[in-house]
Amino acid sequence: KHVEHELGLECEWSWHDQVDIARGGNSKGKRLTKWVEAQGWSMENVVAFGDNFNDISMLEAAGTGVAMGNADDAVKARA
């Protein structure tokens, strides 16, 4: 929480033993949405694939989110 509050960064688990640290408000889902909209497309027509916790925002933002077979059950539940 210190890193998030003091430095304006966010921590997100990418796997059970790996943490991604990025600028606050930055996520795969937000970046994908921004790029898709810049192309003049709609997120409802996007299919995203992922297997880690850091993919959840992307899987939820896409019209169709697909969790890979090796994904944690928590990731599969959000796809």
UniProtKB/TrEMBL annotation:
Protein name per the record: Pyridoxal phosphate phosphatase YbhA
Pfam family membership, one: Hydrolase_3
SUPFAM superfamilies xrefs: HAD-like (SSF56784)
GO cellular component: cytosol
Molecular function GO terms recorded: magnesium ion binding; phosphatase activity
